[in-house]
Structures are given as structure tokens and as C-alpha cells.
Amino acid sequence: MADASTVEKGGAGFEGVKLLLCENPLPPIDEAVEAARDELPRSNHYTEPHSAPLRELLADRVGVSTDHVHVNAGSELILRQLFDRFGQQVHLLTPTYPLFPEISEVYTETRLTPGDDFRFDLRELEVPDGTTLAVLVNPNNPNGTGFDTAPLPALLDANPEVRFLVDEAFVDFVDESVTDLVPEHDNLLVTRTLSKAHSLAGFRVGYAVLPEAVAADLNASNDAYPLTRPSQAAAIATLEHESKIRGRIADLRSWAGQLAADLRSLGVETFPTETYFFLADFAPHDAADVAAALRDRDIYVKPLDDDRLGPGYMRVTTARPTDNERVVSALEEIL
Ligand code: PMP
């Protein structure tokens, strides 16, 4: 069995099933791997400053000018920078991506509830006085559902002193992006990543669509060469073959749907999702016990660390079908 550090590294020789970090179970597309490999011998050269070719391609895809785009080594880094600048008092919709409570000095929250399937209606958002940064994750992690973004322009206009950060890490699964609102709203910040739908987590490619002044500030204070040559090449090749990614999204969704159905047949409650991960309530079992029993079988999952939900909650990420079968047969033994 692999030891913990091997697992954390997604390590060489690891033959278990790793469903801890919301990773896409599919490898990068072949074109990305080839493009990265082709760049290796040219790695004595820097990339273009601020990954200009990738920024231009992203700007073109999103439909904004390049001045609105910032590229960095993963969106987590960008999120940290935005919290540093604007996160004096944060408002979160919880449960949320665990990074956010971790990097907020002070935060208030709106709770998403199991009764509403953890779905959120933006019309009901009341941003507390004094908030400097309101964070919306669309679709949300850990539950995987998106929200209707139609009320956002009114919210932006009604709260000019609040910066709204929309984390679109999983937006490819819902196609309800708000990037088109950025040029007209200087209080809207949108982050995205190629780690999820595009399978490039290990290459570390994130980007943000920002008001020009914010993008200029981040570009100026950042390493001028944030991506390696192979990472930039893999990103460009993947974006140039986006139709392949679309096909994969359909597969991932259907595998997640099958996995959820299999869990329900074992008596586990599952919540709706639009992505390749979903929330499940293993009650009366404790999710931490279930995770430990799975770990003994070389399967690594993520119990939800949220006291206010029951102890049975777990974020379940789909693997490929044969690995999912392994997970389900392990659970048949455990539950
Ligand atoms: N946002 C959300 C909602 C995430 O789940 C993650 C990673 N799991 C990230 C941002 C960060 O992704 P990355 O740094 O790989 O771009």
C-alpha cells in the first residue's frame, strides 16, 4: 500500500484510487502532453513575459481585452493575492472551498442547507455592512451545483463598495460564466483554472478576468514568468482542442451520476450536482470512519470537515468507471 506522502503527491507507483482533491480522473489530452514535451528542450529560454500568448488566447476565448486577464501558476495563488488585497472583511456562502475560511482574517457567512439541496438563490444574498469581499463559487465546491447569475449585475450596482469574487473553477460544467460583466463593473473579480475540466492540475495554470486596474496591479507585482514553458504549451494546446474537453465533461457527469445512483442503492443520501463531484450523507455512519475503512483498501476520499452538518457528510468525486466499481464494492463491504 502507498504511504500518505505518495498519495499526496499522486505519487509514482500509486495504484490506489485518489479522490481527495477534486481532481479530474482523466489525464491531460494527448495534444497537451505532446506540446509540453516539445517545449522541454527549449526550457533554457524564458516564456514571454506574463505568458502573453496564453493571455491573448484566453482573452479571445472569454471575449474581453487582454488587459483584463491575469495568468498565474494555479488559481489558488490568484485567490490568495485577491484576498490579500481586498479581503479585510469577507462574506462566504458555506460550506465552501476550504481555502477561503483559511485565508480570511474575518468572515461572515450565509449557510447553504441540505434542505435546499445546497443550492443558492442570489436574490436572497444579503451582504453584511462592512464587507469588502463577497465570495461566490459557481458551481460551488463541495456540492457541485451552480446558481442563476441573472441577479448579479443588480447586486454589483447596489453594493459598489463590495468587491464580488466569483470563483469559476468548475464553470465549464454549467456554462454560466459572468466574465462578460467584468468590463462594465469595477467591483467584479472572476477566477478560473485549467486544473479541473481541462485536466491540467499538475501543470498549475490559473487565470483571472479582472478590472483592468486590478489585472495591471497583479501583473506588475507578480513574477513576470509565472508559467513554465511546458505548462504554457500544454494550456494552449488544450484550449485549441476544447471540443475534446466538452466530450469528456459529458463522460464525467455520467460517471458521477452512476456513482451517486450506486451509493443511493447502498442507502447513502446523495445531493444533486452539475459537476463530477457531489455531496453524500453516509449517516448513520460517520464519514471519517468510512474514509478510514476505504483508506485501508487504498481508496482515499474526503469527509467534510463541517461540524454544523452531520458527521456523515462526504464530498465524493467520480473516478473512472472501473475505479468507481472498486469504490462501490469496497463500500458494500464497509456499510
Ligand atoms: N477554486 C476551487 C473552488 C477549487 O476547488 C480549487 C481546487 N480544488 C481551486 C479554486 C484551486 O485550483 P488551482 O489552484 O488548481 O487552480
TrEMBL record:
Gene3D superfamilies: Aspartate Aminotransferase, domain 1 (3.90.1150.10), Type I PLP-dependent aspartate aminotransferase-like (Major domain) (3.40.640.10). It catalyses: L-histidinol phosphate + 2-oxoglutarate = 3-(imidazol-4-yl)-2-oxopropyl phosphate + L-glutamate. Its EC number is 2.6.1.9. It is an enzyme of class 2 (transferase). GO terms for molecular function: histidinol-phosphate transaminase activity; pyridoxal phosphate binding. It holds the Pfam family Aminotran_1_2. CDD domains: AAT_like (cd00609). InterPro entries: Aminotransferase_I/II_large, HistidinolP_aminotransfase, PyrdxlP-dep_Trfase, PyrdxlP-dep_Trfase_major, PyrdxlP-dep_Trfase_small. The keyword RNA-binding does not apply. It comes from the Archaea. The keyword Transferase applies. Residues 23-325 form the Aminotransferase class I/classII large domain. Pathway: Amino-acid biosynthesis; L-histidine biosynthesis; L-histidine from 5-phospho-alpha-D-ribose 1-diphosphate: step 7/9. Belongs to the class-II pyridoxal-phosphate-dependent aminotransferase family. Histidinol-phosphate aminotransferase subfamily. PANTHER family: HISTIDINOL-PHOSPHATE AMINOTRANSFERASE, HISTIDINOL-PHOSPHATE AMINOTRANSFERASE 2. This is histidinol-phosphate transaminase. It comes from Halogeometricum rufum.
